[in-house]
Amino acid sequence: MNNEQFCCLLLLQVSLFAELINEMLIRDFAFCVYNALLACPDKARDNVKRDDGRKKGSDKRADSQKRDEKKSDKDNVDQRDKDSSEVKKETKKDRDRDVDVSEVHR
After folding, report:
1. How far apart are CA 81 and CA 67, in angstroms?
2. What does the pLDDT look like over 61-70, one tens digit per residue?
């Protein structure tokens, strides 16, 4: 092995070692950030929960409005069904009367 090949081999080994050190530092830094987030005070977590609660509260209002609309639509449909059934009952009564009148005329 001549001197030039030895230098290339040495350069390759150094570059691989530098790449491994870089990855190790990245992982170490990510682990430090993760630990810092876990150690953060509960106030920050409470603020996040409050924000979620506000969003959920507005969602609850929207859901209740939708339920009220659905209920009113259902009531309208029920009222129409009730009205149509009353009309059917009235027509049946009218038919019965017509039958009675026709029997009288005979």
Report:
1. 21
2. 767 777 777 7
Q: How far apart are CA 52 and CA 25, in angstroms?
A: 35
Asked whether the CA dihedral 36, 37, 39, 41 is positive or negative, the reply is positive
- Rounded to two decimals, the pTM is 0.36
The pair phi, psi for residue 42, each rounded to 5°, is -70, -20
Residue whose entry in the numeric block shows the structure tokens 């029997």? 103
Instruction: Determine the pLDDT at residue 17.
Output: 95
Domain count of the fold of the chain? 1
28-59 burial: b if 16+ Cβ within 10 Å, else e:
eeeeeeeeeeeeeeeeeeeeeeeeeeeeeeee
Note down the domain range covering 84.
3-105
Query: How many Cα atoms are found within 13 Å in the side-chain-facing hemisphere of 84?
Result: 6
